[in-house]
Amino acid sequence: MLKYAVMKTKKTVTTLQPLVKLGLSHDEVACYIELVHRGSLRASELAQAVNIFPNAVYRIIDRLKQKGFVVVLDTHPVTFQAIPPQVAINAFVQRQAQALEEVKTLSIQAFARKTSSPPETRIDMISGRRAMFKAYVDFLKQTKEEVLIISVGESVPDELKLANRDALERGVSIKFIPHRYDEGNAQLLRSWVRMGIEVRHFSDSGFHLVVFDKKHAILAANNPDNIAERTSLVIYSGGLSQALRDYFYATWENAAMIDS
């Protein structure tokens, strides 16, 4: 069908393929080139020139008009005229680039929403004082900003002390609220203040709370008869951790300072 149009001139052949690569069909390119070369044409003249039916010309011209390559002149009979290539092609490429940019942006946003959706809340249960300390050290090694602690005010193993020291050296802020502050642990608490931990006292009992970077938390309950026996909930949830962080700071505001 397009053999005549494609082979008509060398200029037609060399112009056809680049326009097809831009997204125009072979029929659209053939009609457009003919209008560029010959000026305004009626439907019957254009149909004869490119060897297609006149009814098909109207459909092709409508697509070319939408793409900005031709205008329909208000004459009788209706005639079609090509917009100069340097104008039509530049405008078409710019619209295509803008459309692609919009699609790219929407795709990236959709992918980001999908991949950044918050993970499901997970809560693990562990038993014993040793298991709680191990979870504390593991989380502390990953912490970058702050650790918030409410606890009895008990002595802790050297591994935990070293983890606290390393965190402080990395610039992590550690705030601690002990439930107990008396002759039995005053020296211990003051040594933590000298280390760089911020310590305030608030009387309470029965539980331990640690919040790491508003992302993870440990919440533990003691056996009243033996504080070494405790059950801990290890919380993997930004939402729950944030709520526990808010609780910590509400208590912190009412707690008493401890000096070194």
Helix content: 40-55%
What is the first-to-last residue Cα distance?
95 Å
Number of helices: 10
Report the strand count.
11
| Uncertain regions spanning at least 5 consecutive residues | 1-13
Question: Based on helices, strands and strand pairing, what is the structural class?
Answer: alpha+beta
Strand arrangement across the biggest beta sheet? 4-10-9-8-5-6-7-11
CATH-assigned fold name of the largest domain: Endonuclease, Chain A
* Largest sheet entry: 8 strands, mixed
CATH superfamily of the largest domain: Endonuclease Chain A
Keywords:
10 helices; three-stranded antiparallel β-sheet; 2 domains; eight-stranded mixed β-sheet; single chain; rod-shaped; Arc Repressor Mutant, subunit A; TrmB-like; Endonuclease, Chain A; disordered N terminus; 260 residues; alpha+beta
